[in-house]
Amino acid sequence: MNEKMLEKDREEAQLIKTLAKYYLEDDLKLSQIGEKYGWSKQRIQQLLKKGGYSYKDKVNSKFSKERLEDLYVGKKLSPKEIGEILGVNQNTVVKYLKDAEIKIRKARKNPALTKEVLEDLWVNKGLSQTKIGKEWGYVQSAVANLLKLEGITRPEA
Question: In terms of CATH architecture, what is 2-58?
C-alpha cells in the first residue's frame, strides 16, 4: 500500500512540474492549462500551490532582469512597447525596471505642436485628436488640452 501511495505522489509531483512548465515557461493562462486537462483554473491553481508555485513566480519569470535588459537596453524598446509584449501597462514595466535596478532613460520630448501646426491639422485638415496625437507622439487628452489652451475650435458645419 505504501508503494502505491509513493507512486501516486511521484505522478502528482510530475504532473505539477508539467503544469508549472506550461504556466511559467510557456506562459499559458490557468484557464488554458485547465482546458488541456478538462479541469477548472482553480484546480490548476491548487495543484501549482501544492507544488510551491505561485503567481509571483510567473511575474518574476516574465520580468526577469535579463529579459528586461534585453528588451529595454538591448532592443531599446520603450516601457509602452515592452508592456504591449508582456501584457501589462507601461507603469508596471517602469516599476519592474526600477526594481531590477535598470537605469531609466529620460523620456524623449514630444515635438512641439505650435498653435499654427495644431490649427492646420485640426481645422484645415480635419484630423481627429487621436490621429494628431499618434502622429505627434501625444495622447488624445493632451491634444484636447492643447486645443483648449490655444482656443482652437473647428468651425461649425
Answer: Orthogonal Bundle (1.10)
Residues 6+ apart with CB under 8 A from 155: 123
Query: Could you tell me if 26 and 37 are in contact, meaning their C-beta atoms sit under 8 angstroms apart?
Result: no
pLDDT 10s per residue in the chain (157 long)?
A: 578 878 888 888 899 999 988 887 777 888 999 999 999 989 999 999 998 887 666 666 677 888 889 889 998 888 888 888 877 788 888 988 988 899 998 766 667 788 999 999 999 999 999 999 888 888 898 899 899 989 999 877 6
Q: Among 33, 56, 59, which residue's Cα sits nearest to residue 44? A: 33
Q: Hey, where are the domains in the chain?
A: 2-58, 63-99, 115-150
Rounded alpha-carbon distances, angstroms, from residue 108 to 69, 105, 130, 150:
19, 9, 20, 23
Task: Give the Cα separation of 93 and 81 in Å (integer).
Answer: 10
Q: What is the pTM of this model?
A: 0.44
For residue 95, the tally of other CB atoms under 10 A from its CB is 14
Beta carbons within 8 Å of 71's beta carbon, 6+ residues apart: 77, 81, 82, 85
